[in-house]
């Protein structure tokens, strides 16, 4: 049975007009997303706290090349740049894992550290690969509130599509310090949770 969700949001006339011309892209746990005519998106949230938390993260990462620019927000919505490209896991399934993607993933986690994120992790489905193989993040939730010291969800996703070993090989070559922690933690996690 489908769960119906009613949305009521208070927005200015300009935002409302843009939404009326928008195209539905999809929904997740926290809300729904529309593509607006000017190549921006409007994400409408169920909970105002989740909206404010995400806006706060986007505001704090505004100088980073890994995140879309945010333009406006209300109690229940955010307007930000649209991120094209292909979802990381879909890209790897289609093209395979290569060294450039692995290095860019390492750089992304280093960027999280530079931005003082407590959560040094992200899911594959929240990373989009651009034409030049650069990466963009679309959903940086719990970045400042939940402490995760290694990219567990990322590596779980890579393991699921058979790309974890290739990724860890590059991590070992490029960042041995990260490798020691990440390899130990993910092996322990996988041994405990995947039978």
Note down, in words, how this protein is organized.
By secondary structure, the chain is an alpha+beta fold. It has two domains: 13-81, Phosphorylase Kinase, domain 1; 86-193. It is 43% helix and 17% strand. The protein is built from seven helices and eight strands. The chain has a five-stranded antiparallel sheet with strand order 1-2-3-5-4, covered by helices on one side. Strands 6-7-8 form a three-stranded antiparallel sheet. Strand 4 and strand 5 form a beta hairpin. Helix 4 (99-114) crosses helix 6. The two termini are 32 Å apart. The model is unreliable at 1-5 (pLDDT under 50).
List keywords for this structure.
195 residues; alpha+beta; 2 domains; 5-stranded antiparallel β-sheet; 7 helices; 17% strand
Average pLDDT level: 91
- SSE pattern, N- to C-terminal: HEEEHEEEHHEEHHH
Shape: elongated
> What class, by secondary structure content?
alpha+beta
